[in-house]
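By way of example, what follows is a protein record of this kind.
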Amino acid sequence: MLPFFSAAMPMFDMGIVSLAGSWIGFVYSLEVTIIDILAVAAFLALPAGRLPLWCKLPFLAYVVAVTLSIFQADEPLAASFGAGQIARMFLIMVVVARACLEPKTAIYILRGMALGMAAHFVAVLHQRLALNLPQAHGLFIHQNTLGMTAHMVLFPHLALLLHGYPGTRNLILATLATIVVVVFTASRATVGFTALGIGLTYLVLALAGLTQRKVAFALGGVLALAVVAPLAMSSFEKRFSNTPLNEDQYDERAAFNRAASFILADHPLGVGSNHYVHVARDKGYSERAGVARAEGNRNNIVHSAYRLAAAETGYFGLVTFCLALLVPLACAFRTGWRERSNAGGALLLGLGIALLIVCLHSFYEWIFFIKEVQYLVVYTMGMIFGISLRMNARRRRNALPLLRRPLPAGAGMPAATGGIRAGW
């Protein structure tokens, strides 16, 4: 829940060394947050146990790539801020994964995320209906941050709802509130990728086994679409009436992409984490790429997380960045599909779709690198690894020959639980 409030409650951030006011990037200081402190406490408190190397190695390789980029940087201190942030994220991913080896931990994390989104829902309603803002940003600074974080709340809850996990009312409220938040951001990419993710979630869960519940919610979704579509159109009309796109005259996204490509061509090892604006603006790449000369344009970051990773950490950084995302993605779909008959498998599929949509959305946004988004990404990755490892371990135990298994306590007694809870 805390990442949803970090922008609105800066007392959660403690800057050890800061370049705020003199540096432009995605992180301005070597900082520690209350989330990091709680993660360290949880790491020390959790029962002894290790994650397999395959869970950690891709992310750890990306941490190494970002750290090595410090040696390519004009301002090593600023580059160390990026390395410090990604190292903190690695720790949190490990902690969440270890915690999710215990049943129900992932559900508690999702409840906290739903509460955080509920606070943004209230803020978004106030901004859109009372303040008449064309693009609501909730408690974050920018609407794109809100849109990216919404993916990681919406799809796991929708997957559990379709599967039939207990708590239907709360799951419906979390799903509908997040959809309203997405619509009021009036972000084309956010709305488009959210629609794609909803369609994928319905498709994957239907292929896993079509039930009356899923058919009923599909019909309900069609009715909800009839209500939401005019609302979405109204939000876009209000946005574009205030700020027309004019992309036929100046395509800023394409100009940024050219600048990032020029940087990578000249610096295959990267220019240093957190250095894109400095290099593009001060070394002529923005001018060469045709970026508008206004200060706001020249101080902006290329609108693609992958191009940003490549420009700042080079080809090695880009490859390891992609691997760090692909490994949990493959894990979620592989284990989730194998366990699709129970709630844990459905949740894994929902988490996998959330991570997939974040990966696709990141082709058009750089905000993956903001700490508020990264916290939720590593929560998602950690939940995927923890749930998968627990379910795989149970599957191996069940595969043992009957005579080699120890007799369980209460053998021969009726099962205490069943139905949709079974397998969780």
